[in-house]
Write a structure and sequence with these properties.
With 193 residues, the protein is mostly helical. The chain is built from eight helices and no strands. It has two domains: 79 residues; 99 residues, Orthogonal Bundle (Arc Repressor Mutant, subunit A), CATH 1.10.10. Keywords: Coiled coil.
């Protein structure tokens, strides 16, 4: 491994030297292009050569980046850039907030019924409950519905919802209040019938 690391470092040194040469050549060509005393043909040729050198320098920059990445990986034995290995991330980075009861009820209500499993599932949302919930949510706009479900269904914080939707927390709060008001009004209408 040490020999390989030395070879990579030697290659990196050669790449850096080549990139410095490119930069010097590009600077010289830039002076030729700017100098109005040169013929137009010479300036055009210099401009084309400069573009070729810049394109080649981009390739060498990619090689340099890859070599630096590989050298760092060989030195540390880990993926460069990560401070912690994936299994050592904090609980907040690993956890996705989902209401387990909601998920359980959802999956139980969508399970297939088998011939031998005819008894009523006690924690599953019944068909009439799902229809009732859909009816209440039908008065909401798409945006209000998404925000309401994120807050009430998935128990996300207002900040998390704002981050997910790319809006500010106050907009989330107002939208949530508006959605709750619409649902209350719809509940009174449905309950009054």
């Amino acid at each position: 491994m040490e020999d390989l690391l030395k070879q990579y470092k030697l290659s990196l040194k050669g790449i850096k030297k080549k990139r410095e040469q490119f930069k010097e050549q590009i600077n010289c060509l830039q002076e030729v292009i700017k100098d109005k005393r040169n013929k137009k043909k010479d300036r055009l040729l210099a401009k084309e050569e400069k573009q070729l050198l810049e394109a080649e320098d981009i390739i060498y920059a990619g090689i340099e980046s890859d070599l630096l990445f590989a050298i760092e990986w060989m030195k540390t034995g880990k993926n460069p850039g990560n401070r912690r290995a994936i299994e050592r991330r904090s609980v907040y980075q690993n956890t996705k907030p989902v209401d387990p009861v909601l998920m359980q009820r959802y999956f139980r209500s969508t399970e297939n019924c088998y011939e031998w499993d005819r008894e009523e599932k006690e924690y599953a949302a019944s068909y009439s409950e799902r229809v009732h919930i859909d009816d209440l949510l039908s008065v909401l706009t798409e945006s209000e519905r998404e925000i309401y479900l994120m807050k009430k269904g998935y128990a996300l914080s207002l900040n998390k919802i704002a981050d997910e939707r790319g809006i500010v927390k106050s907009v989330v709060s107002r939208t949530l209040k508006r959605a709750e008001k619409k649902i209350e009004e719809q509940l009174l209408l449905v309950g009054g019938n």
